[in-house]
């Protein structure tokens, strides 16, 4: 695979070279007894660790908020904040439109 200097590399050739490299390395690892024993030990370690993890969480289930007064206070506060932000954005858009149209002149310095 020879390319001209400055020419972009051929993606298909790069992919072929990469796949050849990966296959060669995996074939080498497959024949390596120490690597196989290491991977088996790691898998056994993870399997044992997974058995030690409790299946039920030690913390209590979250408490469901009681219905009634105060249930919607947080939601109402968030909606009020959103309304205020939307009004602010509308004001900024209006001012930007006026500036773009030349309706607003800068204040005299001083």
How would you sum up this structure, described in words?
The protein has 110 residues and is mainly α. The chain is flat. It is built from 3 helices and no strands. Among the domains are: 44 residues, no CATH class; 31 residues. The longest helix is centred in the last third of the chain and has 29 residues.
The major sheet is characterized as: none
Approximately what portion of the residues adopt beta-strand conformation? under 5%
The count of DSSP E runs of length 2 or more, i.e. the number of strands, is 0
**SSE-based structural type:** mainly alpha
Low-pLDDT stretches are none
**Overall mean confidence score, pLDDT:** 82
Please estimate the helix content: 55-70%
Overall spatial form: flat
Number of distinct helices: 3
Helix and strand element order: HHH
Distance between the termini: 72 Å
User: From the alpha-carbon coordinates, what is the Rg to the nearest angstrom?
Assistant: 33 Å
Task: Detail the topology: elements first, then pairings.
Blueprint (H helix, E strand, L loop, with lengths): L10 H20 L2 H20 L20 H29 L9
Concise synopsis of the structure shown:
This protein is mainly alpha-helical and 110 residues long.
What characteristics describe this protein?
mainly alpha, single chain, 63% helix, 110 residues
């Amino acid at each position: 695979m020879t390319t001209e200097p400055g020419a972009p590399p051929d993606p298909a050739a790069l992919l072929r070279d990469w796949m050849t490299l990966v296959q060669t390395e995996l074939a080498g690892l497959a024949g390596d007894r120490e690597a196989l024993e290491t991977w088996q030990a790691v898998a056994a370690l993870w399997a044992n660790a997974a058995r030690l993890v409790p299946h039920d969480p030690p913390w209590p289930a979250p408490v469901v908020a009681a219905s009634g007064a105060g249930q919607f206070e947080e939601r109402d506060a968030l909606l009020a904040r959103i309304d205020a932000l939307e009004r602010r954005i509308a004001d900024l858009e209006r001012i930007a439109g006026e500036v773009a149209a030349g309706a607003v002149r800068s204040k005299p310095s001083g």
